[in-house]
Design goal:
The chain is α/β, with parallel strands linked by helices and 113 residues long. The two termini are 16 Å apart. The chain has 3 helices and 5 strands. The longest helix has 18 residues. The protein is 33% helix and 19% strand.
């Protein structure tokens, strides 16, 4: 398992998600963009202030999602991923959030196995 995740960092990386596929669940939205010749997965997390006002809440959701992805990155096909959690994701347990995210990856056919 890799010790670090690779994150989307530049504004250009985020702008390219306009031409991406969107997958929804009750607490998460996942945008996926496939690159040719890409052999690693890159991740981004967007939580606007309008969704969660407190910075501690936004950080809590980001920590949960990063941990979730880090634990499962070896089973995810290479692509660029952008997560948009909903306000209700804060009230969901970590286990339920993990189940929901893994179901999103499976429904998007991004799960290796």
């Amino acid at each position: 398992m890799p010790k670090q995740l690779v994150f989307l960092q530049s504004q250009e990386d985020f702008d390219q998600f306009r031409r991406s596929k969107l997958f929804n669940s009750s607490n998460l939205k996942l945008r996926v963009r496939f690159n040719t010749n890409q052999n690693i997965s890159r991740f981004g997390f967007i939580i606007p202030k309008k969704v969660l006002i407190k910075v501690t809440d936004r950080n809590k959701i980001k920590r949960r999602l990063k941990n979730l992805v880090l634990r499962n990155v070896k089973n995810i096909k290479p692509a660029d991923f952008l997560f948009f959690p909903a306000k209700t994701a804060l009230k969901v347990t970590y286990k339920d959030l993990e189940t929901e995210a893994l179901n999103l990856f499976r429904s998007a056919k991004l799960w290796k196995v």
